[in-house]
Design a protein that fits this description.
heterotrimer; A mainly alpha (86); B mainly alpha (176); C mainly alpha (117); A: 86 residues; mainly alpha; 90% helix; flat; B: three-stranded antiparallel sheet
């Protein structure tokens, strides 16, 4: 029962990832694409933790932590670039 | 002359407080990452100390946090208020997204804050971003520019009362 | 215990889905950010907390707390930086927008004979 619910949750997360990806492709401006990429990163952090739990690899949690740090720095760098150029 | 020295003294105090709080925060992160045995603890102490020493010339933003018992109590209470607002804002967003008519009346309004410290303004801006229908777009001096998904007040006072007051009255005690 | 965790995770994934749907449906970038940042923060929080409740031997609870704290602090910050950059870049608001005080003040500041604020 619980496993089925977890699987449904992961499927919903994957669907969310797909929808955000559509926005990233059609997004009219570059800022739209960056926002979509940010949302995709957050969703994939959740999915990485899901994999860590189901494959019983605690080390994947560290991957999720590092991924969140790097995505934060990347978004800040892109925002600085859009604001005043390189 | 005397006034100048007093000001110097005050900045030194803020700087020391900033270093202390930063050191404790770094240690907390180190132990949350899961260090248990003695060697790892010693490594964590040394690395935290090194980071505090290397970043001592940056602005001491954490020095504005007050450490009185009342401030700590209000801080815990603030976390509860924050989570309640987060839940309300998510239900609000869910309602708007599912509604086929997409009810929106967006715009950017000014609000004024009484907070003086930089870290207080940052926490306020973060809280505003995560609460129902509002998103901080810019900060200039004591004015915050808020993108509001459904404008209820066009003037500065009404918007300030609606958006800022519920957080500010707690944050004033913690940060000043 | 595991069932409670599964239900919390499912609720989180629903919020993630709604956030992505809002990203697709909203008319301009600022409204998209509103949906994107709020719903995904709450969704990630619930999703990970539910997993930690159901699988606390497999994954350390402390690290999950670290991820949650990190997401709560950095997600609004990066959205704020992006929103400011988009506004300075001149990306227009949706056409049914009521007012834009920030653009007004920017204009008043750049014009030399304007009063300024």
């Amino acid at each position: 029962m619980a496993d089925t619910l977890y699987a449904v949750a992961a499927m919903t997360g994957l669907a969310a990832l797909l929808i955000a990806f559509i926005r990233m492709i059609i997004g009219p401006t570059s800022a739209d694409r960056v926002v979509a990429l940010d949302v995709m990163t957050i969703i994939s952090i959740s999915l990485i933790v899901f994999l860590a739990a189901f494959l019983e690899r605690a080390i994947y949690i560290d991957v999720a932590i590092v991924y969140s740090i790097i995505s934060f720095i990347g978004v800040i760098a892109i925002a600085r670039y859009m604001e005043r150029g390189i | 002359m005397k006034k100048h020295r007093a000001k110097n003294h005050e900045t030194a105090g803020r700087s020391i407080k900033h270093s202390g709080i930063l050191f404790l925060l770094l240690l907390l992160v180190w132990f949350l990452l899961g260090s248990r045995d003695l060697q790892e603890c010693i490594t964590g102490l040394i690395v935290s100390l090194l980071i505090v020493i290397l970043t001592r010339n940056l602005t001491p933003v954490l020095g504005d946090i007050r450490l009185t018992p009342r401030a700590l109590f209000i801080g815990l209470w603030y976390i509860l208020v924050f989570f309640k607002e987060l839940l309300v804002s998510n239900l609000d967003v869910a309602r708007r997204v599912i509604d086929p008519k997409l009810p929106l009346k967006p715009g950017i309004v000014r609000v004024r804050t009484r907070l003086r410290s930089d870290i207080g303004k940052m926490i306020l801006a973060n809280s505003i971003t995560l609460t129902p229908g509002t998103l901080t777009v810019g900060i200039r001096g004591d004015l915050l520019y808020i993108h509001w998904i459904e404008i209820r007040h066009r003037d500065l006072e009404g918007a300030t009362r609606d958006i800022v007051r519920k957080f500010e009255k707690h944050l004033e005690v913690i940060f000043g | 215990m595991e069932l409670a965790g599964a239900i919390i995770t499912l609720a989180g994934s629903v919020f993630l889905f709604l956030g992505a749907l809002g990203l697709l449906r909203m008319p301009d970038i600022y409204n998209r950010m509103q949906a994107g940042t709020k719903a995904t923060t709450m969704g990630t929080l619930l999703f990970i907390a539910g997993l930690a409740l159901g699988f606390h031997q497999e994954i350390g609870v402390a690290r999950v707390v670290l991820i949650i704290l990190f997401v709560i602090f950095t997600n609004p910050l990066s959205t704020h930086a992006l929103a400011r950059a988009a506004h300075k870049h001149g990306i227009p608001l949706a056409k049914d927008t009521v007012k834009d005080d920030l653009a007004q003040d920017e204009e008043a500041r750049t014009e030399p004979e304007g009063e300024g604020k």
